[in-house]
Amino acid sequence: MFFNERIFCLRGDIHSILNVFSMFRGEILSRQREAGH
After folding, report:
1. CA distance to 7, 19, 21, 24, 28, per residue, from 33 (Å)
2. pLDDT averaged over 10-residue windows placed end to end, the chain, 37 residues
3. What per-residue confidence (pLDDT) applies to 23?
4. DSSP 8-state symbol, 17
5. Greatest Cα-to-Cα distance within the chain, rounded to the nearest angstrom
6. Alpha helices in 1-37, H assignment, sequence order
7. Would the pTM of this model clear 0.85, i.e. be above it?
8. Ramachandran region, residue 33 (left: φ > 0; alpha: ψ -120 to 50; beta: rest)
9. Which three-class secondary structure state does DSSP give residue 37?
10. What's the domain of life for this entry (predicted)?
11. Could you tell me the sign of the dihedral formed by the alpha carbons of 20, 21, 26, 32, in that order?
């Protein structure tokens, strides 16, 4: 039970990290697009 909760919490952390990473990457891509034009 406790182990399952820890896995679920870890999955949530990974999901939030991926969310931040994709947001950060989108920011970089939009800046590159602005710099290109």
Report:
1. 38, 21, 18, 14, 9
2. 80 94 96 87
3. 97
4. H
5. 54
6. 2-36
7. no
8. alpha
9. coil
10. Bacteria
11. positive
